């Protein structure tokens, strides 16, 4: 069953948002969605880089100036 | 494995800031999907002893420990994850920690002196070279 895992890294700095995102990806199953919320500026750029490197799907990036939200999908098994 | 998927780091230094950098780079590379091996040798190996990970001096401006005290305070204020947490993250994300056999021998370090729970293996230079040959990122810290 598809799950939406929420990850809060507000107030965290390098390398924690990236590391916690990776941990969440490792614990997820194909089809799951991970929603990462944070406010470390560089991580907003770097998490999408990791998403690409890991062969995941980047669904959405929102930024209201105070915090950002990145939605990632774990690809379904072929 | 495709080239570019592996990073190999030698942690030769035991200074606080250098070991910190090594752990941040190591966990960062794992987070980006790479396989990572960290080889602890010479002064770096000292930091793998029980309760010694963050005990090194600063590489510059240590001022008999005052500089380090100030740096630790700044790190805490900026909410930077502690070294001990980072080494656990590194381990949890599947990073390999290798202890140099020869350093253990010359410095009289036994396995029981080290944090065996985070050490993957004990090895010599040949293992490092073999891994380094397969790596796109190799660092000597």
Protein described:
The complex is a heterodimer of chains A (78) and B (141). With 78 residues, chain A is an alpha+beta fold. Chain A has a single domain, classed as 2-Layer Sandwich (Translation Initiation Factor IF3). Chain A has two helices and four strands. In chain A, strands 1-2-4-3 form a four-stranded mixed sheet, with helices on one face. In chain A, a hairpin with a 4-residue loop joins strand 3 and strand 4. The longest helix of chain A is centred in the middle third of the chain and has 13 residues. Chain A starts with a strand and ends in a 5-residue tail after the last strand. The mean pLDDT of chain A is 94. The mean pLDDT of chain B is 94. In chain B, helix 1 runs parallel beside helix 4. Chain B has one domain: 3-Layer(aba) Sandwich (Hypothetical Protein Ychn, Chain: A). With 141 residues, chain B is an alpha/beta fold. Chain B has a five-stranded parallel sheet, with helices on both faces. Classes of the chains: A alpha+beta (78), B alpha/beta (141). At the A-B interface, helix 1 and helix 2 of A face helix 1 and helix 4 of B.
Please give a quick description of this structure.
The complex is a heterodimer of chains A (78) and B (141). Chain A has 2 helices and 4 strands, in the order βαβαββ.
């Amino acid at each position: 069953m598809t799950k939406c895992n929420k990850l809060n890294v507000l107030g965290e700095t390098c390398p924690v948002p990236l590391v916690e995102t990776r941990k969440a990806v490792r614990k997820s199953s194909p089809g799951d969605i991970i929603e990462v919320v944070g406010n470390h500026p560089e991580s907003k750029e770097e998490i999408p880089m990791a998403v690409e490197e890991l062969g995941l799907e980047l669904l959405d990036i929102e930024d209201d100036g105070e915090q950002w939200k990145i939605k990632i999908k774990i690809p379904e098994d072929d | 494995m495709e080239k570019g998927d592996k990073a190999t780091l030698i942690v030769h230094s035991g200074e606080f800031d250098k070991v910190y950098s090594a752990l941040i780079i190591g966990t960062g590379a794992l987070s980006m999907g790479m396989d990572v091996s960290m080889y602890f040798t010479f002064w770096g190996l000292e930091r793998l002893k029980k309760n010694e990970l963050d005990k090194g001096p600063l590489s510059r401006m240590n001022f008999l420990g005052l500089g380090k005290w100030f740096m630790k305070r700044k790190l805490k204020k900026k909410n930077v994850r502690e070294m001990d947490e980072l080494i656990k993250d590194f381990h949890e994300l599947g990073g390999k920690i290798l202890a140099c056999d020869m350093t253990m021998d010359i410095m009289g370090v036994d396995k029981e002196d080290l944090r065996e729970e985070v050490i993957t293996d004990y090895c010599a230079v040949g293992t490092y070279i073999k891994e380094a040959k397969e790596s796109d990122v190799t660092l000597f810290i």
